[in-house]
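Two folds, back to back.
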Amino acid sequence: MRYFSKAIISAFTLLTAIHSQAQLARNPIIFADVPDMSMIRAGNTYYMSSTTMHMSPGVPIMKSKDLVNWETVSYAYNTLDDVDELNLARGKSSYGRGSWASSLRHHNGIYYVSTFSGTTGKTYIYSTKDIEKGPWKKISFKPSLHDHSLFFDEDGKTYMLYGNGKLMIAELANDLSGIKPGSTPQVLIENASAPAGPNIGLPAEGSQLFKVNGKYYLFNICWPKGGMRTVIIHRADKITGPWEGRVALQDLGVAQGGLISTPEGNWYAYLFRDYGAVGRIPYWVPVSWEAGWPVLGVDGKVPEQMNLPVSKGLDPGIVSSDEFKGTVLPLAWQWNHNPDNRYWSLNKRRGYLRLTTARVDTSILLARNTLTQRTFGPKSSAATAIDVSGMKNGDCAGLLLLQKRFGWVGVKMEAGTKYLVMVSGETGIPVELQRLPLTKDIVYLRADCNFEYMADSASFYYSEDGKSWKNIGKALKMAYTIPHFMGYRFGLFNYATQLTGGYVDFDYFHIGKEPR
C-alpha cells in the first residue's frame, strides 16, 4: 500500500510538472513577422513598436499585460509621406524601405516613437499623451539617422544614437525638430563590432540605449562572417563614454533588441530571429545581472520555455478574422503601400469589402489597395469568399501570398469570360500554372502556409461551397527576399490590366491553423 501511494504521488508529481511546463510561455513568443521591436513598460502595462516598412498605416503599437499576449492598439502614422514610391505611383515602389527600426519612449507623461526612412531620407518623431488612442503629432527632419535610439537623459538633453559599425551621437533641439543648431554629431564608438572579432559581415547596428542604476547600456547586433546574428552590449558611466563592450548572446541567430523589466523586478531581453519566409520572429530570453552586466539567456542559450504566462494565440491581437460588418477595418489589416481611399469601401455593400479598380497596372506588386495581414507559424491558413460579378475585362482579383516571389489564387476575366487561376511568381516572373472555367459569380479561395522547421511551402485551393476544397496549381516554394525585406503576407486584391471601374466584393476573411 505504501509503495502504491508512492507510485501515485510520483505519477501525480510528473503530471503536475508536465502540466506546469505546458502552462509556460514558449519561444518564439510571437511566431510572425514582428521585427526590430522597441519596448517600454508604463506601470504594469507593456507597449511595443515594430517595423512594417512599406505598409500603411505604419509603426504598429502593441500592448500587453504579461509580455506574451499582445494586441495592436494603434499606429504612429496613417501615411509616412505622400511620394510616388509610397503611393505605388509611376511604376515606383518602396518595397524593403519605407520606415525601419523604431524607438519607443515615455518621458514626462508623453509617449514618443521615432523612426527613419531610406525612401524619403528623413527621421520622424511621433508623440502623443495617449499611446492607445492618439492623436499623434508628427515631426520630421533630415538626415535619416540609421537605426537610431531616441534617449531622454536626466540632464534634460535629448539624444539620438545611430549608425552602422561606427556609432554616432547627436544632440537634438529642445523641440525635437532636428539636430541641435550649432552642434555637430560626434563619434560615440569607433568600431562597435570589435567585441565579436575582426571578421564582420554586418557591422554593429540596431542601437537601443538604456540607463539602469546610473549606468548606460547600449545594445547592438552584428553578424560575423560565417557565423550568426550576435548581440553586443556596451556600457559606460557617462553617455559620452568611454564605452566597454562584450558579446552578450550568440545562439540560434537570436539578436537585435533590448531590455525590459517586470513590476516584480525580473528582467528579460526582447530579440528576434530570422526564420525563413514567415519573417523575423520575436524571442524573449531571461536576463540576470553579474558585476554590473546584463547576462542573457540560460548558460548562454535561448531557452525553449519562459517563466511567463502561456500564449493564448495571435488572433485577434496580431492577426484577425474579419466579416467586414464594421465601419472600420480591424487594426490587424495594413495596406500594401499607401491606399487610395476613394476606391475601397465597407459601405457600398454592407457586410462586404469592395475593392474597385481606378487605374491600369502591369503587375500585382504595383497594384494599389491590396489589403494585407501577416502570415504566421508554424502553420496558417486564410480563406475568403469573393463576388466577382462586377469585374471587367483584364481584371485580376483574389487571395495573395505577398512577397517578391508571390503566389495567388483568384479570378481573371478575359474577353467576357471569367477563369479561376493559380499564378506563381516563384521564379520572379509570374506564371499561370492552372486555369479552370468559372461559371458562378461567387468563388471561395484558400491559401495554406507551412513554416514549420522552415518548410516555407504554400498551397492554394478553391471551393464551390466553402466546405469542399480542391487544390489548384502547385505548391509555392516561399522565400524571404531582401528586396522586400518582410515575411509573407496574406493579401486581398483587385487590379485592372485593361479597363478601370471593375469591382469585387469580399464577404469575409477567415484565418486559422492549416486544416489537417
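---
second:
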Amino acid sequence: MAVALLLMTVFLLGVSTLVMRALNQLWFNPQRIRSVLYKQGIRGPRPSYPFGNIPEMQKMQSAAKIPSDAQQYLHHNWVPSIFPYLHKWEKEYGRIYMYSTGSKQHLYVSDPNLLREIKLQNTLDLGKPTYLGKPLQPLLGDGIIRSNGQHWADQKKIIAPEFFLNKVKGMVGLMQTSTMEIIKKWESRILEISQDSGVLDMRIDEDLKTLSGDIISRACFGSSYSRGNLIFEKIALMQEALSKPSLLFGFLNFRFLPSENDKKIWSLRKEVDAMLLQLVRHRQAEIGRQSGGGVPNDQKDLLQTLLENSAAANNGMHTHKSERFVLDNCRSIYFAGSETTSLAASWTLMLLSLHPEWQERVRAEILEVCGDHAELQHCLQDMDSLRKFKMLTMVIQETLRLYAPTVLTSRQAFKNMKLGDLNVPQGINMWIATASLHRNPKNWGQDANEFKPERFANGITEACKDPIAYVPFGFGNRLCIGQTFAMTELKIVLSLILSKFSFSLSPNYHHSPVQKMVLVPEHGIRLLVRLVQAS
C-alpha cells in the first residue's frame, strides 16, 4: 500500500509539473511579455486563445492575392500583398506594436530609433528566434545562420575571415570563370534559336541561381566544386520544400504524423549529409598526404579552412562533432551565399530592363573604366577598377533597397534588457521590417517606391535622412559576413553580362514577388535578351 501511495504521489507530482510547464509556456509567460509591453504604451491587435492573431493574419493573406493579369500591376511597393497584416497593423498601431502567433509573442519594429538601439547591442543575449530552429535544422543544421550565443560567436570567428577583402580578391578569377560559362550559354542560345530577330525571350533567374551556386561551390570546395554543385542542387530542393509562410511566424501545426513533405525534407537531409561527408573525408585524406606545411593560407578554399579549424578546436581529432560543424556550415554558407546573391542579380536586371537609360549608363561606365569586352576580364582582376563602377554600385544599392532578398530580420531577447527607453521582456521575438524601412517616405522622400539610383550618388550616408534604416545585409553584430563577397560577385557578374547583352522586359513576365524564406519572383524573371552588337 505504501509503495502504491508513493508511486501515485510521484505520478501526480510529475503530471502537476508537466501541467505547470504547459501553463507557463502557453499562458503565464505570454501574458507576462504582453503586460511588460502594454505598460509601456505598446499596443497591437487583440489575440485570441489559443491561436493568437493567426486567424486574422490568414484571412488578410488570402484576400491579398495579386490578380493573375499582374503585368499591369508592376510596381515596387509589394509589401502590402506579401505581409498585408503587418502593413495594416502598422497603420493602426504605429511603427512599434505587438502581436501573437499561438503562444509566441512578437514585437514589430520599423522605427529607426529603436533599430539604432538594437544595432548598438553587442550582447549575445540577442539572437535568432529559437522557435525557428527545429524546422530549419535540416537545411541549416547548427551552422552560423541558425546558432546563438557563444556557439555562434565561435563559428563567426572561424568563418568571417574567409570573406574578408584579402580572401575575396583571390576569388575574383573563379567568379569570372563561372560567369563566362553562362555568357557562352546565352550567346549560343541567341545565335541558334533566334537567328532572324536576334532576340531571345528567356527566364534568367534560374541560370543566375546556377551561376551563383557554381561560384560559391568553387569558393567552398575548390577543385571539388563539381561534387559541390550536386550537393547544392539537393540543398536547393530542401529549401523549396521548407519555404512556407507558416515557418516564418510559427503558425500552429497540429499534425502528429509526418507529412510527405516532411519525409522528403529528411530524406534530402540524409542525402546531403552523406555526400558532404564523403567530400569531407576525401579532403581530410588529401590534407593528411600534404607535406611541407601544406597549402598557403591565401590559397586554401573554405572547406579546408573549416576542417583545419574544427580539428584544432578538437585537439587535432576529426571527431563527429568537428565533421558536423563542417557539414552544417557548408549548408549555411551555400544558402546565404548562393540564393541571396542570385536573387539580387536577377532583380537588378529586371529593374534595368524597365529603365534602359540606366542600363546604358552602366554599360558606358564599364566601357570607360575597362574598355571593350576583350579587356574586361583582365580589368576586373584589379579591385580598384571595381571601385570605379559608381553607376553600377548605385544601381545595386537601389535594387537592394527595393528588392532586398531578406524582407524581415529577426531577433529574440534571451534575457530582460533595456533598449533606449524600452524595457524588452525575455522571450519576445522582434521583427525588423526591412522592406518597410526601405520605403518610408519620411526617410527616403515621396519617391520612395520608385527606382532612382541617383539617390545613392553620394553614398549611403547621403541617400536618406537616416542611413540606419538601410539594412539590406542586416545590422549589428550579426551583419552579413559575406557582404564584401556578395558585392564583389554582383559587380563582376553584372559588368560581364551587361557588356555582352542588353535586356528589356518580356511580355510574358508576371511580376509577383513572394516570400519563400527570401524574396523570390514567384513566376520567374523573363526578359528579352539581345547581344549588345545586335541592339
